[in-house]
Amino acid sequence: MSYFKYVLSKSLEFKEHGLTAKSWPFEEARKIVHRTEKHMPNKGYVLFETGYGPSGLPHIGTFGEVVRTVMVQHAFSIISEIPTRLFVFSDDMDGLRKVPENVPNKDMLLKHLEKPLTSVPDPYEQYESFGHHNNAMLRSFLNSFGFQYEFQSATDNYKSGHFNDMLLSVLQHYDEIMETMLPTLRDERRTTYSPFLPICPRTNRVLQVSISKVDASAGTILYKDPDTGRFTEVSVTNGNCKLQWKVDWSGRWSVFNVDYEMYGKDLISSFDLSSKICRILGGVPPESLSYELFLDQEGQKISKSKGNGLTIDEWLRYAPPESLAYYMFQSPRKAKRLYFDVIPKAVDEYVGMLVEFGQQNASHKVDNPVFHIHNGNPPSAQNVLSFNILLNLAAVCGADNDAVMWGFVQKYIPHASVEDDILLGSLIHYAVVYYHDFIKPKLQYRKPSDLEKDALLDLCSELQKIDNLASPDKIQNVVFEIGKKYKFENLRQWFQSLYEVLLGNSDGPRIGSFIALYGIDNMCKLIDDKIKCAMRSS
């Protein structure tokens, strides 16, 4: 991660182009420019916010919301002189509604249901609470990318009194907020709904109870204890109550004067409601983007409590962090599967964009994903190979470690080195790991047909007639000519034969580039081995 740091920067070179760029972060940034032209922030900066519910372990969707928000923040910093800040807000005072499936000590957690997450013991026994544990995991990961953000805890804001004025305002506008919320609720929910969730002084549980009396002048509410039946009066300030989340969302917009926040497509109606309540409280709702949800292998929504889909650590085991940021950049309004098989494609598309960036002028660079991934300053793409080729190289040479791969790579790129070519080195390492975990167990070589044997032997003969250091294009032409010479149904069938017989897969890399990397002599030996193996098994 040495060159992947989200440190905001301004560039006069790109300001003019950013004002007309088509990439979505600049489109979003121009919405904020329009907002600030009408309502210059009295606070002196534009505030971006992203929210996090620490009821389970942070997942890739959480990272996606932050990284996309930062992309918009950076785009705004290029086209506007107004300073920016980013708040990462954790709703860690929310009650623990159910025990996540992917944590230890589940029986212990069952005893603390409905308590604020920062009052629930840490099942990992590392932090003072479950909420603190999950907050720490989020911060640690975001810090590893160098994000510039300010962490905000709901517990801290409620208990410190920072939300007190807003809470009293909710109390003063209680009836108007209820009139806004009640029509959106089911009949049975309306009977107990209140914007305020009192924290029971007896059990420390977050209570969802109807409010019997509201006293705006005293700043208190009265409710009946569901266990004892006794009426209890509590102050709404200083952490004695928290807000239902839709009201909480609008409340912090008004307290912090948030200018921009993204949200998942499943929260469109919630965002609209919170916007109405924010206006009731005298605030202005933020500009926003609703993004599509991430899906697991089965097409189900990723859930923190279920732990389905990819985890952050799993992606980073098999691919560089830049590829994850690239995946998040692509089409945020389209649903995406987040599973292991999407990783190689994301890596290669990222590498392709990195190469393309070095050949573009400024007007096109601002719409290249790597501009947003690397905050306008991506690394050089010299001495880089596609992930697909490296995966196939790992397969044919049975790579057990990076050194085996480097042996082939340095014959192909003699001046490449582990010390200087950081990206190439990381791709080699990830390719070895991915190969061992996902490709090696699934390799299925098939025997060549008589036609394929003749074509393969002819290919070997023709390859040996050209220079061992021939270019990938020259080698590719030789492969094409062999395919045309033999009566394959089409050239695609010929290339598929190469993949299935030699590489054990139904598809593969650009074969000319692969042979150049693997070596003509090695390729001919591979062909010879596969044909002999087929003959022995006949």
Please give the CATH architecture of the largest domain. 3-Layer(aba) Sandwich
Oligomer: single chain
Mean pLDDT: 91
Helix percentage: 40-55%
Give the biggest sheet.
5 strands, parallel
- Strand order, biggest sheet? 3-2-1-9-10
Structural class: alpha/beta
| Overall shape | elongated
Tally of discrete structural domains: 3
Count of strand segments: 12
Broad CATH class of the largest domain: Alpha Beta
Distance between the termini: 51 Å
Relative strand content: 5-15%
As a whole number of angstroms, the C-alpha radius of gyration is 29 Å
How many helices? 24
The CATH superfamily of the largest domain bears the name HUPs
CATH topology of the largest domain: Rossmann fold
**Contiguous runs where pLDDT drops below 50 for at least 5 residues:** none
Descriptive report:
The mean pLDDT is 91. The protein has helices at 12-18, 24-38, 60-79, 106-110, 130-144, 154-160, 164-172, 174-181, 187-190, 245-256, 268-280, 312-318, 321-329, 343-357, 362-365, 369-373, 387-397, 402-412, 422-439, 450-463, 472-485, 491-503, 511-518, 520-537; strands at 46-52, 84-90, 150-153, 196-198, 211-215, 220-224, 231-235, 241-243, 260-264, 287-291, 294-295, 336-337. It is α/β, with parallel strands linked by helices and 538 residues long. The strands form four sheets. The protein has a five-stranded parallel β-sheet with strand order 3-2-1-9-10. The chain has a three-stranded antiparallel β-sheet with strand order 5-6-7, with no helix packed on it. The two termini are 51 Å apart. α2 (24-38) packs across α3 (60-79) and α8 runs antiparallel to α11. It folds into three domains: 12-295, Rossmann fold (3-Layer(aba) Sandwich); 387-442; 450-537, Arc Repressor Mutant, subunit A. α3 (60-79) links the parallel β1 and β2 (84-90). The longest helix has 20 residues, at 60-79. The chain has 24 helices and twelve strands.
